Amino acid sequence: xxxxxxxxxxxxxxxxxxxxxxxxxxxxxxxxxxxxxxxxxxxxxxxxxxxxxxxxxxxxxxxxxxxxxxxxxxxxxxxxxxxxxxxxxxxxxxxxxxxxxxxxxxxxxxxxxxxxxxxxxxxxxxxxxxxxxxxxxxxxxxxxxxxxxxxxxxxxxxxxxxxxxxxxxxxxxxxxxxxxxxxxxxxxxxxxxxxxxxxxxxxxxxxxxxxxxxxxxxxxxxxxxxxxxxxxxxxxxxxxxxxxxxxxxxxxxxxxxxxxxxxxxxxxxxxxxxxxxxxxxxxxxxxxxxxxxxxxxxxxxxxxxxxxxxxxxxxxxxxxxxxxxxxxxxxxxxxxxxxxxxxxxxxxxxxxxxxxxxxxxxxxxxxxxxxxxxxxxxxxxxxxxxxxxxxxxxxxxxxxxxxxxxxxxxxxxxxxxxxxxxxxxxxxxxxxxxxxxxxxxxxxxxxxxxxxxxxxxxxxxxxxxxxxxxxxxxxxxxxxxxxxxxxxxxxxxxxxxxxxxxxxxxxxxxxxxxxxxxxxxxxxxxxxxxxxxxxxxxxxxxxxxxxxxxxxxxxxxxxxxxxxxxxxxxxxxxxxxxxxxxxxxxxxxxxxxxxxxxxxxxxxxxxxxxxxxxxxxxxxxxxxxxxxxxxxxxxxxxxxxxxxxxxxxxxxxxxxxxxxxxxxxxxxxxxxxxxxxxxxxxxxxxxxxxxxxxxxxxxxxxxxxxxxxxxxxxxxxxxxxxxxxxxxxxxxxxxxxxxxxxxxxxxxxxxxxxxxxxxxxxxxxxxxxxxxxxxxxxxxxxxxxxxxxxxxxxxxxxxxxxxxxxxxxxxxxxxxxxxxxxxxx
Length: 825
Known about the structure:
Layout: H1 13-31, H2 33-59, E1 66-72, E2 77-78, H3 88-99, E3 106-107, H4 108-120, E4 124-131, H5 152-175, E5 187-191, H6 197-203, E6 208-211, E7 216-217, H7 230-236, E8 238-245, H8 253-256, H9 262-294, H10 308-318, E9 321-322, H11 323-328, E10 334-335, H12 341-345, E11 349-352, H13 353-369, H14 376-384, H15 396-403, E12 412-420, H16 431-443, E13 447-456, H17 461-477, E14 482-491, H18 493-498, E15 503-506, E16 511-513, E17 517-524, H19 526-532, H20 555-580, H21 584-590, E18 595-597, H22 598-604, E19 609-610, H23 613-626, H24 628-653, H25 660-671, H26 685-693, H27 696-706, E20 721-726, H28 732-742, H29 753-760, H30 768-778, H31 782-792, H32 796-818
Parallel strand pairs: 1-4, 1-11, 2-3, 4-5, 5-6, 6-10, 12-13, 12-20, 13-14, 14-15, 14-16, 15-19
Antiparallel strand pairs: 7-9, 8-17, 16-18
């Protein structure tokens, strides 16, 4: 049977056609061979990277039999990553650190969460920690001490997390059926030699402490050394006038006294004794079985004169101890070297703590926190029904997210804001930045509560007042509870900032209090002028020398100076009394500049509870869940008002009303059903929307959920609590774009774009770093996109002029900040 070709076709025509296409393609590829090779190379690398990524994901999976490994040094655990102007400096610093061989940096919150996740995870069997120098390789210095770089309160939080890890692993061991891994729950701490007591304090919480034979344990007890410079000032002709409220406020004493004031000596000894007692008790409790075993007192039922605490105190009296003596006292487990870590891990899978943290959080988010309970979608839909017609604008997304807070089964999100270092008015971590972060968290519809994490000894009075006012504003206007979590220190201005927090958490070793105020100003006398051979002439148009460093305050100037300090002290104690529920006398008893440990502060009512960072987050989540109805209502009102305000501005910009006042008056009357005359082009839809958005529909939707009765909720940071840090970090590029787009002036606006642009920026208080995520969502609307185009189409000189003006204003504000003399310390 013969085959026939179709009409109008030739045998082999298709093959020739394809061959011709291949030849032409090959010719083009050869002609543009450089480009072709580049494209092929990029495609190859992309495919290879994807394949390697998939393999890596599989290889880094958490398996049953995982051992966590952790390299610690002075920079591996930090409270928070300090924000920079554009974010590039911190990224470069991290890159250099990684290239130098240093371990990955973790925040304190990440470290605590990781230990808690590992404690709950039965796949994790043990933890191995090794302390290494902060710099390794060619750049390392041989005389650098080995230290973890943490304060006592931070170490106490880690010790608590480690104790939880060991206890939960013991519980898992008892619940396990069949053969149980003998190393389950073991924690190993490797170091060549201890260079400070703080590092040993952390190590004592581990089940096994391994030190090299030539190492030492420098337990010598806590002490303090202070210098006094009055005689030096007298010698060079610098007198220092000081004002301190009251007798315990002695931060300025080194400049005005030749020796330690008696009240300061009394307070400092009380502080050191309390801290040292805590260290002794904690070390003795953690190492008790080993100490009693080594001293032969384990299991003894007779009246043993020697306790574990006695052994620790004796070690402090004769320290530092060589490794062998520390072993004989039960303070160290054994001598050894880090090479032995391989035998401990054996066939188990070693995994870096940072890798485990990332993997486990991804698991929790996907398996536990994103599970939508049955019926929740319908509940959310019914709640949104009253608002869809009223808010057909960009704010509808924010309102929807606010209403999701009303779903009882949803995880609670807690915002974390950091107050670190000396409190100043300006700078990346100044009071304005901290306040802006608090407001950003308050306006975030996903956040139900805020934790203010503090590690600060105080600072500027005005800056402290700004942060305290922001805490009050967040709790009053957004109904979001703010909980304070104290790190190593939260004293003076830092305590001032947190007095009105719903609850205050601290660690036993936290330094707090110092409720007082101190001010000082140098007075340069003629002796100094003679010494350096110069003369000073001053001219005054008004007889007021209060700002002169060449005149001691006296007369009316001195009275005003003292009165100002008195006023600040009175305000401080009044804030403490109001925030803590004290009488004036009770506040005065814990004030006067006295400094306390966390244990002492718990006893006198300055803090509410001993608890770590994570416990504070759980307490905040509990409070936020209980207040979720009020929070949702406040947020809905906020975004409805903001949306209507934007519509009013837009209406005025389009000349539908002569002014904003006229628009507000007429729309308010219309919403109440009263007749009013409006301009011909006025849109009644604005009034209708305002009425619906703030009418009975909202109250009914909110009231319905309120009367259902909330189910029992117990905050658990690993299951139903999410953490979101503020300010939210953005890249340098995004920050630069947001500055260029929104940093220009409105000088060339025609009155249309400026109004709505300002409305769009209502929620972006606090600078470009905090604006960007909200800018992206707002830019979806056509109006905002058009405004961006208009701004970008402006003459670049106008943008440059605006930036220069901003810099000039910033400079002036810095000068004013530097002129403030009264500071908390």
